What does this fold into?
Amino acid sequence: MRILVSACLLGIPCRYDGTSKCCPGMEALLQWHTCIPVCPEQMGGLSTPRPPAERRGEGVFTADGTDVTAAYRRGAAAVLKLARLYGCEAAVLKERSPSCGRGAIHDGTFSGGLIAGDGVTSALLLAGGIPVYGESRIGELLR
It folds into this structure.
């Protein structure tokens, strides 16, 4: 199966703070499936490092109030295009992210709180019929 994967989970230092979030389950996933790394924020034109951002309603904002929604939407559209070009059947994306989060995302207050919801890219992929898994659910793709 071809699967989109958040590049930060594969050890690429593309997160907002210039780091990665290596995920131990990725090695097993790579043995079973073809993984295509993506970073929606970079694909939307944002730099690394960049100010942290969180979703508020339909928008995405940095802590100082800068609206970065357009960049997040551009990145999401680019990821969906790649998914279709490569025939991806699923995505494993970084949990809680304003772009990649699935099921729970930061609450927009920059306090560490969480709310039910999806990141911009996850929502677009789901609307496009592509199942999205957070990194804690990798095991479901190894069965």
Q: What stands out?
A: The first helix runs from residue 26 to 32.
